[in-house]
Amino acid sequence: MRTPKSIGLLAVLLAAGLPVLANETITNLMSSVVSYHYPENLTAESLSLGGVISPVASYQYPENFNTAALTSGGVLSPVASYQYYEWAAGTGLGLASSLEASYYYPVLPVDVPSMLQLQAASGRVVLAWPVSTGSFSVQTTTNVGDPNSWVTLTNVPTTVNVQTLVTNAMTGNLGFFRLIPAN
Amino acid sequence: MKTKLLSAVLTLCLCAGVQAQVNSGSTGSDGALDFSSITYATNIVINMADHPNGIYNYTYVNIPSGVTVTFIPNSANSPVTWLVQSNVTISGTVDVSGQNGIGNGPGIGGAGGYAGGLGGQFATAGQGPGGGSASLTTWAGSGSYAGSYGNNYLIPILGGSGGGGCHYPRQYGGYSDYGGGGGGGAILIATSGLLNLNGTINVSGGNSYHDIGWSDIAGGGSGGGIRLVTTQFSGSGSINANGGTRGGGQGIIRVDTYLNTFSGTMSGSYTIGSQFVIIPVSGQGAQLTVTGVGGVSVSASPTGILTTPDAVLSASQTNPIPVVVSCVNLPLNSLITVSVKPANGSAISATGYNNTGTSSASTATIPIVMPRGGGLIYATATVSN
Predict the structure, then answer these.
(1) Is the pLDDT of residue A18 over 70?
(2) What is the per-residue pLDDT across B6-58, written as a single tens digit (0 to 9) for each?
(3) How does pLDDT run across A69-125, given as a tens digit for each residue?
(4) Strand residues in chain A grouped as ranges (E)
(5) Count of CB atoms situated within 10 Å of the CB of A15
(6) Which chain A residues are Cβ-neighbours of B162 within 8 angstroms?
(7) Which chain B residues in 321-360 lie under 8 Å from chain A, judged by CB atoms?
(8) Are the beta carbons of B17 and A8 separated by less than 8 Å?
(9) Which residue, among B275, B301, B325, B359, would best test binding to A if mutated, counting the most A CBs under 10 Å from its CB?
(10) Is the N or C terminus of chain A more exposed, i.e. has fewer CB atoms within 10 Å?
(11) Residue B13 contacts A where some CB pair is shorter than 8 Å
């Protein structure tokens, strides 16, 4: 690496008693930093749906519900400053039962723990989430395409072990639910 | 007489040898960064949007006393790189520090640095390889850099990491929801001329937020990185790569020069030496590159930004995930460590060897149990002398 000129300079600096520093080689290598996104693998089993609702195959993985795909259809309400899961259960899509799971990152692609679980049986929908995650309100709509149609349920939550439960009657053949932080 | 003769020869050699000793590689295409006509205290803001790789090619740099230069990061959050053909004189301030947390909002990192974490019930960890952990029950983690990641040569040059956010219950009800401080940024100044610093270069981390009268629970950002490359480094100014309060770790300072007469202060983890590779090019020295993750190819110039991942894996892919590290000029069967820092959670690592190829070009494929969600990956190796 050194040129004849630099060697000459070094010699003169050394002769002059100046604190010349020796050339070095790098000994501890590091690569550039790479960012990755490795989404949760959400399946019907992971949702603890008890086999009541059959998953739609193409909807099993959250990358099918990325933000761009959903927002391009105007489906989702504006991104908030927090993240949450949103589940929907119903009998749409011409199937006896179906499951849709949307999962998106409003701010950062952070790892979000499984929070909201849904079980549908005997004309009721039971929503459950861990008590430890904080205080939430449940909102529902039958038209997820209208961001102004969400209505907050007034059903009184109950606590069973470490889960907060809200039970709601299943009306019609389609319903969407979500959690939002309680005020 | 002999001393006088040596001094004269030294002066001549310094003048004649400047171009030969350190070649910054500057094309001079950005002209001079010269604020010498400004005679009053003022803040100059450089918007890096028009320099997507953060590299500036100046003819010379002159920042007089009273002038502070700050930066708006570009979309790739590149470090600041000043390649300079002639002398660099800094009597004012070059500020690439991280910002303080504001309420429950995170402090933004300086250019090349990483942001702090959000406060609130969905508190997040600070970003970056040394990002501090979020907390709902205790003190949040602080950002770290020196001794945590990177190397003392600052190749590659990286910024500091953010402190974690918090959601901490208060004694009489309510919560302390505070954002973490941003990590200090990163700046490389390489000049073919001389570098005189009587002012300040600051890449300190941002402070965490806390309400007056309440404890400081969130984490401070770590200091960032400063690398100066010059034939002769002089002056009596200051170089700051301190961590922000609360608890931010030190940043890294590196000076590469043949002759150091600098008498000022350096706050941070610093080394002074003579390693004149400025920005490694293909085949120059030993290099590591993460080129594949789970079968997904990674760009040769990854951004390391979480919101625009360099590698998007399929959710259905099962762990462990193979990480491919390409090695240049590294002896075969060298020990290579792959580290993964999830956006929320503790860092993990796995080791392997570059056992495919030759010493001039080899690869290591290292399986690692990758945390779900988003995060950062990098590889390290040690070269024996």
Answers:
(1) no
(2) 444 444 444 444 334 799 999 999 999 999 999 888 999 999 999 999 999 99
(3) 333 232 232 222 222 233 333 322 222 222 333 332 222 222 233 466 776 666 677
(4) 28-30, 34-38, 85-90, 98-103, 117-121, 124-130, 136-141, 151-152, 158-160, 163-169, 174-181
(5) 13
(6) none
(7) 321, 325, 330, 342-345
(8) yes
(9) B275
(10) C
(11) yes
pLDDT band of A67, cuts 50, 70, 90 = very low
Distance CA B254, CA B226 (A): 6
All residues at 6 or more sequence positions from B26 whose CB lies less than 8 Å from its CB, including other chains: B57, B58, B59, B83, B84, B85, B190, B191, B192
ipTM value for the complex: 0.88
Nearest CA of chain B to the CA of A63: how many Å? 7
User: Which chain A residues touch B345 with a CB distance below 8 Å?
Assistant: 111
DSSP conformational letter for A132: G
Q: Does residue A53 register a pLDDT over 70?
A: no
Cα B362 to Cα A72, B211, B289, B334: the distances in Å are: 43, 53, 11, 10
A109 to A42, A83, A84, A112, B134: CA distances (angstroms): 16, 9, 12, 9, 15
The pLDDT of residue A125 is 74
Interface test with B, best of A31, A59, A105 (most B CBs within 10 A): A31
Min Cα–Cα distance to chain B from A35, Å: 4
Residues in chain B: 385
Contacts (Cβ under 8 Å, ≥6 apart) of B298: A34, B290, B291, B292, B310, B311
